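Aggregate trends can hide what the representation actually does to any particular protein. In the encoding step, the backbone of a single protein was reduced to a row of integers, each denoting a local shape. The record that follows shows the chain in one-letter code together with its fold in token form.

***
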Amino acid sequence: MAVVIERRYCDAIHPLHAVLLAGGVPLYLGVALCDWAYMASFHIQWSNFASWLIVGGLILTAVTLVFALVDLLRPRRRGRGIAAYFVVLLATWVVGFFNALLHARDAWAVMPGGMILSLVTLLLSIAAVWLAFPTSRMGDPV
């Protein structure tokens, strides 16, 4: 007699949603690294690089927010933890927006607040990626 093991996985997010979500992490990591390089060298160009990377991260996060909102509003696709994921992603965008406003100031006025906001944005972005991909468990109902 053969034993059949049926594995059930949680609903995965759309592949484009996943790519956009994961694309924000290296951009926010680049912002933190540029801020660190600016703190170490005081070359103003590092602050300019950080500003452009923040804009890219905000654009990707905004599009990802639209995907997350659609998943949140569709009851059939709504998975466990989607509300927490949406809130963390929204917090990522809000903190990133304030980081962009801070980086729009004179380069000398960016530090140390810019570095702190960059690290907070990076950590929130990583937390959003962590929450977006639920782990698979055997026997969980779909």
Q: What stands out?
A: The chain has one domain: 15-132.
